[in-house]
Amino acid sequence: MMNRYYRIILYYLSIFVIMIGVIQLFPLLVIPFYPEEIRYAYCFVVPGIMAIFIGYLLRFFFRNTEIVKLEKNYDSVLVVMVWLLAITISTIPWMLKGDYNFTQAAFEMTSGYSTTGLSVVDVGNTPHVFLMFRSITLFVGGVGLVLIITSAFSDRYGLNLYNAEGHNDRLMPNLAKSARLILSIYSCYILLGTIAYVASGMKVFDAVNTSIAALSTGGFSVLDDSIYGYHSLAVEIITIVLMMLGQTNFLLHLSMLKKNFGNIWNHCETRFFLFLAMVFISLMVRNLLICGYASSLGESLRISVFQFVSCLTTTGFTSVKDPAFLPSGFVTIMILMMLIGGDLESTGGGIKQYRVIVVLKGIGHMIKDTVRSSRTVNTKFITRVGRKYQLPDSEIQQMSSYILFYLILFFTGSLIFTLSGYNLQDAMFEYSSAISTVGLSVGITNYNASGIILWTAIVGMFLGRLEIMVVFQAVLRVIKDVRHRENL
Prior knowledge:
The chain is mostly helical.
């Protein structure tokens, strides 16, 4: 007999599969503007209708399932299954197009849903309907598959999935209302970004896609040369603003709406970002000038600011023609910023700034404890969104373990790349881009890359988006249940 929790998981999966099917149909909205692309409609209609049908079938078979709270780690199993299904179903349009095999399609869609932006697609020769499909996956992946469903239902349906997907940002007491508010804020920013891009001279189609990519910190571009291809300071400034909004904690967005600007300043991640900006942008500017990459202070500052924000927000847009030719010191800083990543509870990836702050505070207190009297009681605090919280040792230990695990995975992926013949810096750059869901590339991941390279990057992007532990919790839960069943 099937475990009751797996029956609940299958019931919830029916809802998500229907939604994934609907996602496949959204790109068809582009066809009226590009009627010559009607021949690609079947690429989206087939998987869309198929997924919707399977979803309703699952819902019918498990319609009498009693809905109760999922026990520990079963929520992780459901979240992982939802993401795997979304990626798998979304590979079908690319394979039906005929130019991509399953590995290439899985890479592109993992990159999309994880808001990474690494690509094997030649955007210059790709139909608009497929480019829009990529941007839709960025939108969905940025706010989260679970969040989108949660916005339509009550807390009862949300269960612990919202947190399991990497969200802890309940803006309102009711989870569904909180999800709707996040979606509203997100959509409003995309609209404003689109208008600003059009006003700067960008085509409407480019503006919509770039706005989605910047806010979701995804980095998919409709030009081969990314933001560099527009040769526009205005476009770069708008992109910087959107990238910053995308990597910002959603609780800070709510503070902005309520005009509680003091909460924004009195937030540890805000101050940490400014500290990183002052230190590393200065170093990047100096490095470009010393190496002769930039001909003037203004050009060096323009490149440095954009690339710093792109890396730290884990967006992956570039304002230079080819990142592979940037000076070594500059690239090293980019790798570090990509690993640190954006705010906790944002669309940004990476380790997350909050975790780095917590660990640094822990190290600082550990050093101070060595010179303090053993009788001194040392209480640790951290400021978040205008409020001061006590920082327990257990949280420091948890964050330290997470960062160590993250770095182990980072070095493992980099090692695999070096064993494929790439030098260490390029390998570290490319894999930090993958696991931190950034999207900047020196050319290792491309259409002709080997399966080992692409699948290593796929695993990195998937683990990076779901913040690692969710995936391992799900795997361990399934293994435990299988063993338990075998022992019956």
